[in-house]
Amino acid sequence: MNDAPCANFLYNPPSVFGAAIFATVLFVASVAHASDLGVCADPNNLPFSNSKGEGFENRIAQLIAGELDKTVHYTWWAQRRGFVRNTLRERLCDVIVGVPAGFDLVLPTRSYYRSSYVFVTRPELRPKLDSFDDARLKQLRIGVHLIGDDGANTPPAHALARRGIIDNIAGYMIYGDYAEANPPARLIEAVARRAIDVAIVWGPLAGYFAPRQSEPLQITAVTPALDPPALPMTFAIAMGVRKDDAGLRNALNQIIEKRRADIDKILDAYGVVRMDRTKE
User: Of 56, 61, 167, 206, whose CB is crowded by the most CB atoms within 10 A?
Assistant: First the structure.
Protein backbone atom coordinates (compact mmCIF):
# COMPACT_ATOMS: atom_id res chain seq x y z
CA MET A 1 0.00 0.00 0.00
CA ASN A 2 1.30 8.31 3.86
CA ASP A 3 1.90 7.73 0.01
CA ALA A 4 2.28 4.01 -0.53
CA PRO A 5 0.71 1.98 -3.36
CA CYS A 6 -3.36 1.91 -3.49
CA ALA A 7 -7.27 2.82 -3.31
CA ASN A 8 -6.38 -0.35 -5.08
CA PHE A 9 -3.59 -0.38 -2.51
CA LEU A 10 -1.16 -2.41 -4.59
CA TYR A 11 -0.63 0.28 -7.16
CA ASN A 12 -1.72 3.54 -5.61
CA PRO A 13 -1.12 5.48 -2.45
CA PRO A 14 -3.13 5.27 0.76
CA SER A 15 -3.08 9.08 0.51
CA VAL A 16 -5.67 8.66 -2.25
CA PHE A 17 -7.88 6.14 -0.42
CA GLY A 18 -10.60 8.77 -0.72
CA ALA A 19 -11.10 7.75 -4.37
CA ALA A 20 -14.74 7.17 -5.23
CA ILE A 21 -16.08 3.69 -4.69
CA PHE A 22 -16.81 1.48 -7.66
CA ALA A 23 -19.17 -1.48 -7.74
CA THR A 24 -17.51 -4.42 -6.05
CA VAL A 25 -17.85 -8.11 -6.63
CA LEU A 26 -17.85 -10.60 -3.78
CA PHE A 27 -18.10 -14.31 -3.89
CA VAL A 28 -16.80 -16.89 -1.44
CA ALA A 29 -15.11 -19.90 -2.99
CA SER A 30 -16.49 -22.42 -0.50
CA VAL A 31 -17.57 -22.74 3.11
CA ALA A 32 -14.60 -21.97 5.36
CA HIS A 33 -13.37 -24.53 7.89
CA ALA A 34 -10.93 -24.41 10.77
CA SER A 35 -8.35 -26.09 8.56
CA ASP A 36 -8.56 -23.24 6.04
CA LEU A 37 -6.37 -20.18 5.67
CA GLY A 38 -8.80 -17.45 4.66
CA VAL A 39 -7.27 -15.19 2.01
CA CYS A 40 -8.85 -11.91 0.89
CA ALA A 41 -8.05 -11.37 -2.79
CA ASP A 42 -9.13 -9.77 -6.05
CA PRO A 43 -10.48 -12.23 -8.66
CA ASN A 44 -9.30 -10.17 -11.67
CA ASN A 45 -6.00 -8.52 -10.83
CA LEU A 46 -2.94 -10.15 -12.40
CA PRO A 47 -0.06 -10.30 -11.75
CA PHE A 48 -1.22 -10.21 -8.12
CA SER A 49 -4.23 -12.56 -8.05
CA ASN A 50 -7.16 -13.93 -9.97
CA SER A 51 -9.90 -16.48 -9.45
CA LYS A 52 -7.91 -19.08 -11.42
CA GLY A 53 -5.03 -18.86 -8.94
CA GLU A 54 -2.61 -17.54 -11.56
CA GLY A 55 -1.10 -14.58 -9.66
CA PHE A 56 2.04 -14.40 -7.57
CA GLU A 57 -0.01 -13.66 -4.47
CA ASN A 58 -2.01 -16.83 -5.16
CA ARG A 59 1.24 -18.80 -5.23
CA ILE A 60 2.53 -17.14 -2.07
CA ALA A 61 -0.79 -17.89 -0.35
CA GLN A 62 -0.36 -21.57 -1.24
CA LEU A 63 3.16 -21.53 0.18
CA ILE A 64 1.95 -19.97 3.43
CA ALA A 65 -0.96 -22.38 3.76
CA GLY A 66 1.38 -25.32 3.30
CA GLU A 67 3.62 -24.08 6.11
CA LEU A 68 0.57 -23.73 8.37
CA ASP A 69 -0.78 -27.14 7.31
CA LYS A 70 -3.93 -25.47 6.03
CA THR A 71 -5.86 -25.17 2.78
CA VAL A 72 -6.33 -21.82 1.05
CA HIS A 73 -9.93 -20.58 1.15
CA TYR A 74 -10.57 -17.40 -0.85
CA THR A 75 -12.94 -14.55 -0.28
CA TRP A 76 -12.97 -12.66 -3.58
CA TRP A 77 -13.62 -8.94 -3.65
CA ALA A 78 -12.58 -6.32 -6.19
CA GLN A 79 -9.71 -4.47 -4.55
CA ARG A 80 -11.20 -1.02 -4.28
CA ARG A 81 -12.38 1.25 -1.52
CA GLY A 82 -14.05 -0.85 1.15
CA PHE A 83 -11.96 -3.95 0.41
CA VAL A 84 -10.57 -4.31 3.95
CA ARG A 85 -13.83 -3.33 5.63
CA ASN A 86 -15.89 -5.84 3.67
CA THR A 87 -13.51 -8.78 3.84
CA LEU A 88 -10.89 -8.83 6.59
CA ARG A 89 -12.85 -6.78 9.12
CA GLU A 90 -15.97 -8.84 8.48
CA ARG A 91 -13.89 -11.93 9.35
CA LEU A 92 -14.64 -13.51 6.01
CA CYS A 93 -10.91 -14.08 5.59
CA ASP A 94 -7.72 -13.84 7.65
CA VAL A 95 -4.94 -12.37 5.54
CA ILE A 96 -4.32 -10.02 2.62
CA VAL A 97 -1.16 -11.16 0.87
CA GLY A 98 -0.09 -7.73 -0.40
CA VAL A 99 -0.45 -4.44 1.50
CA PRO A 100 1.84 -1.44 2.00
CA ALA A 101 4.12 -2.12 4.97
CA GLY A 102 2.78 0.92 6.81
CA PHE A 103 -0.89 0.36 5.98
CA ASP A 104 -2.81 1.37 9.11
CA LEU A 105 -6.05 -0.52 8.41
CA VAL A 106 -4.36 -3.84 9.16
CA LEU A 107 -1.67 -5.36 11.36
CA PRO A 108 1.17 -5.76 8.85
CA THR A 109 3.89 -8.37 8.76
CA ARG A 110 7.48 -7.60 7.94
CA SER A 111 7.80 -6.67 4.28
CA TYR A 112 8.72 -9.34 1.77
CA TYR A 113 9.56 -7.15 -1.22
CA ARG A 114 10.09 -3.53 -2.17
CA SER A 115 9.13 -2.13 -5.55
CA SER A 116 8.93 1.22 -7.30
CA TYR A 117 7.00 3.16 -9.86
CA VAL A 118 8.71 2.79 -13.23
CA PHE A 119 8.83 4.32 -16.69
CA VAL A 120 7.72 1.97 -19.48
CA THR A 121 8.78 3.03 -22.98
CA ARG A 122 9.50 1.58 -26.40
CA PRO A 123 13.14 0.65 -27.11
CA GLU A 124 13.75 3.49 -29.55
CA LEU A 125 13.57 6.06 -26.77
CA ARG A 126 17.23 6.58 -25.89
CA PRO A 127 18.61 7.24 -23.40
CA LYS A 128 16.05 5.63 -21.13
CA LEU A 129 13.86 7.84 -18.98
CA ASP A 130 14.57 7.58 -15.26
CA SER A 131 13.69 10.99 -13.81
CA PHE A 132 10.71 13.33 -13.70
CA ASP A 133 13.19 16.11 -14.44
CA ASP A 134 13.98 14.74 -17.91
CA ALA A 135 13.12 17.58 -20.32
CA ARG A 136 11.66 15.12 -22.84
CA LEU A 137 8.64 14.58 -20.59
CA LYS A 138 7.31 17.96 -21.67
CA GLN A 139 6.88 16.68 -25.25
CA LEU A 140 6.21 12.96 -24.89
CA ARG A 141 2.69 11.52 -24.64
CA ILE A 142 2.50 10.21 -21.06
CA GLY A 143 0.01 7.79 -19.52
CA VAL A 144 -0.68 7.45 -15.79
CA HIS A 145 -3.23 5.56 -13.74
CA LEU A 146 -6.16 7.42 -12.19
CA ILE A 147 -8.28 6.11 -9.34
CA GLY A 148 -12.02 6.46 -9.02
CA ASP A 149 -14.49 8.53 -11.01
CA ASP A 150 -13.09 11.68 -9.42
CA GLY A 151 -9.75 11.07 -11.18
CA ALA A 152 -7.72 10.93 -7.97
CA ASN A 153 -4.01 11.12 -8.60
CA THR A 154 -1.23 8.58 -8.09
CA PRO A 155 2.28 9.72 -7.00
CA PRO A 156 3.55 9.97 -10.62
CA ALA A 157 0.63 12.20 -11.56
CA HIS A 158 1.42 14.47 -8.62
CA ALA A 159 5.11 14.59 -9.57
CA LEU A 160 4.29 15.55 -13.16
CA ALA A 161 1.75 18.20 -12.14
CA ARG A 162 4.25 19.85 -9.78
CA ARG A 163 6.50 20.33 -12.82
CA GLY A 164 3.72 21.78 -14.94
CA ILE A 165 3.53 18.67 -17.13
CA ILE A 166 -0.23 18.46 -17.60
CA ASP A 167 -1.39 19.00 -21.19
CA ASN A 168 0.35 15.90 -22.60
CA ILE A 169 -0.98 13.50 -19.95
CA ALA A 170 -3.51 10.73 -20.63
CA GLY A 171 -5.30 9.22 -17.64
CA TYR A 172 -6.13 5.50 -17.58
CA MET A 173 -8.60 4.33 -14.96
CA ILE A 174 -6.96 1.72 -12.79
CA TYR A 175 -10.29 -0.07 -12.36
CA GLY A 176 -11.22 0.22 -16.02
CA ASP A 177 -13.79 -2.19 -17.41
CA TYR A 178 -13.94 -4.97 -14.85
CA ALA A 179 -15.62 -7.23 -17.42
CA GLU A 180 -12.22 -7.40 -19.15
CA ALA A 181 -9.22 -9.25 -17.78
CA ASN A 182 -6.80 -7.24 -15.65
CA PRO A 183 -7.97 -3.65 -16.35
CA PRO A 184 -4.73 -1.94 -15.16
CA ALA A 185 -2.83 -3.59 -18.03
CA ARG A 186 -4.47 -1.22 -20.53
CA LEU A 187 -1.96 1.49 -19.63
CA ILE A 188 1.04 -0.68 -20.59
CA GLU A 189 -0.70 -1.96 -23.70
CA ALA A 190 -1.13 1.67 -24.79
CA VAL A 191 2.65 2.06 -25.03
CA ALA A 192 2.97 -1.02 -27.24
CA ARG A 193 0.21 0.14 -29.60
CA ARG A 194 1.75 3.64 -29.71
CA ALA A 195 -1.21 5.49 -28.23
CA ILE A 196 1.26 6.97 -25.73
CA ASP A 197 5.06 7.18 -25.55
CA VAL A 198 5.59 6.42 -21.89
CA ALA A 199 3.60 4.83 -19.07
CA ILE A 200 4.49 5.56 -15.47
CA VAL A 201 3.19 2.59 -13.53
CA TRP A 202 3.64 0.49 -10.37
CA GLY A 203 6.59 -1.87 -10.86
CA PRO A 204 4.97 -5.32 -10.50
CA LEU A 205 2.43 -4.43 -13.20
CA ALA A 206 5.18 -3.32 -15.57
CA GLY A 207 7.41 -6.29 -14.89
CA TYR A 208 4.60 -8.72 -15.71
CA PHE A 209 2.79 -7.09 -18.62
CA ALA A 210 5.58 -5.29 -20.51
CA PRO A 211 7.27 -8.53 -21.68
CA ARG A 212 3.88 -9.80 -22.89
CA GLN A 213 3.34 -7.05 -25.45
CA SER A 214 3.63 -7.32 -29.23
CA GLU A 215 6.97 -5.54 -29.16
CA PRO A 216 9.59 -5.42 -26.41
CA LEU A 217 9.28 -2.54 -23.96
CA GLN A 218 11.92 -1.14 -21.65
CA ILE A 219 11.40 -0.58 -17.92
CA THR A 220 13.34 1.89 -15.79
CA ALA A 221 12.72 2.62 -12.11
CA VAL A 222 11.85 6.21 -11.23
CA THR A 223 14.70 8.01 -9.49
CA PRO A 224 15.15 9.31 -6.91
CA ALA A 225 13.06 7.02 -4.72
CA LEU A 226 11.74 10.12 -2.91
CA ASP A 227 10.62 12.85 -5.29
CA PRO A 228 11.46 16.17 -3.61
CA PRO A 229 10.36 17.32 -1.19
CA ALA A 230 8.63 14.20 0.18
CA LEU A 231 6.73 12.16 -2.42
CA PRO A 232 7.73 8.45 -2.26
CA MET A 233 8.05 6.41 -5.44
CA THR A 234 9.32 3.23 -3.76
CA PHE A 235 7.32 1.17 -1.28
CA ALA A 236 7.76 -1.92 0.87
CA ILE A 237 5.01 -4.54 0.60
CA ALA A 238 3.92 -6.81 3.45
CA MET A 239 1.00 -9.07 4.34
CA GLY A 240 -1.87 -7.81 6.47
CA VAL A 241 -4.05 -9.44 9.15
CA ARG A 242 -6.67 -8.09 11.55
CA LYS A 243 -5.25 -5.86 14.24
CA ASP A 244 -6.29 -8.30 16.94
CA ASP A 245 -4.54 -11.25 15.28
CA ALA A 246 -0.94 -10.86 16.40
CA GLY A 247 -0.61 -14.64 16.57
CA LEU A 248 -1.16 -15.05 12.84
CA ARG A 249 1.03 -12.02 12.11
CA ASN A 250 3.87 -13.60 14.10
CA ALA A 251 3.43 -16.93 12.33
CA LEU A 252 3.51 -15.20 8.95
CA ASN A 253 6.68 -13.34 9.92
CA GLN A 254 8.34 -16.65 10.69
CA ILE A 255 7.24 -18.09 7.35
CA ILE A 256 8.46 -15.03 5.46
CA GLU A 257 11.85 -15.45 7.11
CA LYS A 258 12.00 -19.22 6.66
CA ARG A 259 10.79 -19.26 3.04
CA ARG A 260 12.24 -15.96 1.86
CA ALA A 261 14.26 -17.62 -0.92
CA ASP A 262 11.14 -19.39 -2.23
CA ILE A 263 9.11 -16.19 -2.10
CA ASP A 264 11.88 -14.45 -4.03
CA LYS A 265 11.71 -17.14 -6.71
CA ILE A 266 7.98 -16.61 -7.09
CA LEU A 267 8.40 -12.85 -7.40
CA ASP A 268 11.20 -13.29 -9.93
CA ALA A 269 9.09 -15.68 -12.00
CA TYR A 270 6.49 -12.91 -12.39
CA GLY A 271 9.06 -10.23 -13.25
CA VAL A 272 8.30 -8.20 -10.14
CA VAL A 273 10.51 -5.10 -10.16
CA ARG A 274 12.58 -5.37 -6.98
CA MET A 275 14.42 -2.44 -5.47
CA ASP A 276 16.25 -4.46 -2.84
CA ARG A 277 16.34 -7.85 -1.20
CA THR A 278 17.18 -6.67 2.31
CA LYS A 279 15.25 -7.73 5.38
CA GLU A 280 12.74 -5.15 6.59
Answer: 206
